[in-house]
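Entry 14. Ran structure prediction on the chain below.
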Amino acid sequence: MRLNRALLSGLPFAGGQSAPMKAAARVAPAPSGDADLEKKRAPVEQLPHQQRPFRASRLVELIPAFCGLLWFVVAFYPLFYMLISSFRSQAGFYLDNPWLPPSQPTLENYSRVWENGFGLYLLNSLFVLVISVALILLISVPAAYAIARMRNRLTRTIFSLFLLGLAIPLQAVIIPIYALISGMRLYDTLFALILPYVAFGVPLSVLVLVTFIRDIPVELHEAMRLDGASHRQILWRLVIPLSRPALITVTIYESIQVWNGFLFPLVLTQSPEVRVLPLALWSFQGQYAADVPAIMAAVFLSAVPMLLLYIFGRRQLLTGLLAGFSR
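Output, structure tokens:
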């Protein structure tokens, strides 16, 4: 009974309070109205300070987006201007608003350009492009595989020679190239353009392919060697399938270099029958000196193949360019 009374003495009974609770009530003062008001105001005053970093971060995120939009306008508006100008008549080019599409579009400029030999120039450019890029890949792929996997003094020396080729400017050797092509009796032929393009395209292609092939795990190469595969089989069944991004990168880059080349056609060719598109556009500029829409039509037609090539291979192009730089 004494124990139960001692336990019940600490509980309130019949509306009363125990001695400990009364002491706590006397020690802890009741909160005043001013303190409640300050507690309510404190979060409201801190909200602006909490939102400032958020607004600053949003502003930082908008800067790259604005720069990307500005780059898009600067890079693609010339193409848009070239396209809409090619559909204008010669009189409409000077009378219409240059910022807006033509009021009376016409295809006369394209038909005029095609009738003046544009098809022949296009075929010549395609022939030089296909042969040059094929030879570049045929030479660069085995050379890059040998440099990346057969590490000895010979391969290091060959790789150094390829890197030395990157340091030779094209304009510095144009006269020796002219003398060499003339001595080979290839002057004023399409093969006079193919050989220099291959010579100047192989060094960079080897560098890109070597960087990519070195990223292929060595264990795969050793496993195929243990299975009795030769180097030719490893190159064909392992290296080439896994090096597809690098091969597409080299193809796109070298295609652009060959397609837009102007110095070699200017120096090494003379006849209209062997003209390629860059030199033909230059002759169009002299032929249609005042007909700007016809020149725009010719330029746009010459740019379409490279635009399509880049659109379909842009992902592989980025993958090949970034290969090997993550180390």
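DSSP finds 14 helices and no strands in the chain. Will compare against last week's run tomorrow.
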